[in-house]
Structures are given as C-alpha cells and as structure tokens.
Amino acid sequence: MFSFPLTGLGEQYDWVTFEDGLKLAKENDKPMMLVIHKTWCGACKALKPKFAASEEILKLSSDFVMVNVEDDEEPEGSQFQPDGGYIPRIVFLNSDGVVQSDLINTLGNPQYKYFYSNALMVTEAMKSAVKALGGSRNDEL
C-alpha cells in the first residue's frame, strides 16, 4: 500500500496501483473501486476535496480495494469506458477484475452513468456495490 499525496483524493485511503489492485482483489476476494481522473480536469478537481473529506466514503472504503488512476495510469480497454471516456469516472470491478457495468451512479445523469460530482453519489454507489459484490458491511446495508 502507498499513498498518493498529489492526487487530492485523500491520503487516508489505502490506495494501490491498478496492477496491485487486481492482485489484492483476487487474493482477498474483495471488489475494486477504480477512480479514473485527470490532472487537468475541472470536474475532477471539484470532486477531489469532497471525496477526500467524506467520512462515509472512508468508512465504506474498507470493503474495497481502492485504486485511483490519473492521466497515463488509466487502464486501456473499452470495459473501463462503458458509456464513454468522460472524467471523472468511477467503476466497480468484482474480485476477478471484471468491470460491473450495472453498478452505476443512480443519482446522476443517465447519459453519464459512471460520472460522480459529490460524496453522496459516491457513497450510494459504494453501498450498491457492497450489496451486489459482497463485503463485510453487506448485512448492515
């Protein structure tokens, strides 16, 4: 595990690289939360402090392997852009590393199902992902 001091999403999370995240998800039978963002993106810059300050996101993060990729770190493949390459995007993967395209932002614009602009949107999606993919808090949700 290592921190991402420059990404702005919060050093309190146990961020790992995408490659390490795939291994950890498999080894620990945990889903992955993949946050895709860019340094130059205005919407990403607006989301970062909200994400970093959210106690609820932090609490829920223990049920996931947490991965954030910035700029050139974004994994290649259309599965990571289920409905387009806009940013920021958050996608959830099962423990086998398969994107779960049915886990979307139900509080946002239906044209951009993986776009998140506030902490409430993120926490609701995380709760749905725990219910669908399992996790220690599954019975509480």
From TrEMBL:
Cited Pfam families: Thioredoxin_7 (PF13899)
Reaction equation(s) it catalyzes: [protein]-disulfide + 2 glutathione = [protein]-dithiol + glutathione disulfide
Domain Thioredoxin as annotated: residue spans: 1-135
Q: Which GO terms describe its molecular function?
A: protein-disulfide reductase (glutathione) activity
Taxonomically, the superkingdom here is Eukaryota
**Keywords of this protein's UniProt record, alphabetized?**
Signal
Q: Which SUPFAM superfamilies match?
A: Thioredoxin-like
Supply the EC number(s).
Answer: 1.8.4.2
Work out whether the entry's keyword set contains Transcription.
Answer: no
One Gene Ontology term, aspect cellular component: endoplasmic reticulum
Q: What is this protein called?
A: Thioredoxin domain-containing protein 12
Q: Which organism is it from?
A: Strongylocentrotus purpuratus (Purple sea urchin)
From which lineage does this chain's organism come?
Eukaryota, Metazoa, Echinodermata, Eleutherozoa, Echinozoa
